[in-house]
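Could you please consider the sequence and fold appended to this message?
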Amino acid sequence: MAEEREDTLGRLTGGDPSLLRRINSTVVLRALRGTDAPGALTLTELVRVTELSRPTVEGVLEGLTEAGLVAEAGEGEGGAARRGRPARRFRFRAEAGHLLGIEIEPHRVSVLLSDLTGRTRGTVAHELAETTGAEERLERIRGAVAELLRKTEVPRGTLRAVGAGTPGIVEADGTVRLSTALPGWTGLALGERLRRSFRCPVLVENDANAGVLAERWKGAARGCADVVMVLAGLSPGAGALIGGRLHRGFGGAAGEIGALHLLGREATPERLLSTTGTPLHPLDEAAVARVFALAREGDEGARQAVDRFMRRLVHDTAALVLALDPELVVVGGWASGLDDVLEPLRRELERYCLRPPRVALSSLGEAAVATGALRLALDRVERELFTVEGASGD
């Protein structure tokens, strides 16, 4: 694995080990891939954008082309047609590699595939029973990945990084230290097990942490640096960004508000939302939506269930808001489809919090965790491509 990555970086720099050439390669690659310069650029444009000399840019382009990361754009790509002999234009080869984002939840696994810019190529989801054991769940993940690669005709060897989001407290190496939502998941070396299926880096993160990364990247939290995302579900959790950086806590347990429900069995979500006195199963978006619909229609049992749920959601969220003072609270999980949640939550947070934050539903919905896992993979590749060791003196 290490030799493979070193070889990739060696090809990135055209085989030249000098720090200066690596820096120049990074500057040119950023210019070609950057959102401020979409499409293909001419050599002259690259010289202007990067402020490097023409011979330097030419040499770097040669190395990046040999590495398979840059290609000469075909006629009509990257700009309008011009009279006379057209200038050569170069583009970042987003198709040179692919990324996977994997969501692992009690009732399903889903996989999202993208190119090296994070542009989605395809997705596959498999429904599961919440009682599915660890080995079968891992096998279903492998099956979903294989199905997606076949469906998109993407070779497994082009995968550059894989991210996965899972319920529970996740250690740095991808081991799940504690998970009450998935049978057999506590103590599972999930990162190691997934790495057996891929010849590329695999990163594992808590699902709520992945969700808040996704909402800032493509969802309701774009442009926000201080965000809390609450994932409502069988085992509620929250992810937080502080100053734009993911806050995991000392042991990776930050945001585990599901632990509050473990203090009393009567406070579990499936009991809070029960209209019959017996736990609500399965606890999924459709079942919860039915309870909220009955409450709107005047059903007294459903109204009491919704009130219990809202009190718990407000208390859990208010504790995080008071501690972290976020600009925005995003509500996700199965609650992301319930508009009824927003106004009561806003109203109650105004009562509890010194400075009430804005509150919004997740705009990514059930795709949030897989999208955040994909963001983890993209961050890993961007560090490889765009971080020059030794350039900062670290």
Notes: The mean pLDDT is 85. DSSP finds 13 helices and 15 strands in the chain. Residues 31 and 174 are 33 Å apart (CA to CA).
